[in-house]
Specification:
150 residues; 5 helices; 5 strands; globular
Amino acid sequence: MYDRLLLPTDMSPGVDRAIEHAIDAAQRYDAELHVLYVVDADAYSSYPGDEYVHEFEGLEHALEEAGRDAVGDIVDQATEAGVSTETEIRHGVPHEEILAYADDADIGLTVVGSKNRPGEYRRLLGSVAERIARMAEKPVTVVKTPVDED
């Protein structure tokens, strides 16, 4: 049914179950899993730049490296499960880049993670997950991960 699945990650706890779900779906459909990380342009464009996350690196580079690590961890899990992968790191507005990538790569199904917080804290999906689900032209599966409020 699907040849290519997309799993965008933002390294948050809300993506944990989505990783398992995406790998399982890729196995079931014998599909290639595309793993995407978007360095949020708003996160570093609003950064004044007078402090550095690391002595020699700015915030943008640190975010990109963290994204590469997160993507690498997912690829390791997928490879162990016998799933072939493609990876991509992009810069921009997360939901826009995710939707553009899905179109560019002819993705059949996008699997997004969302934090499921207890109580009245949040009844809606996270803004990125909600926008992807609402704006995507092809199927989207939203996988909620419970997050404890401390």
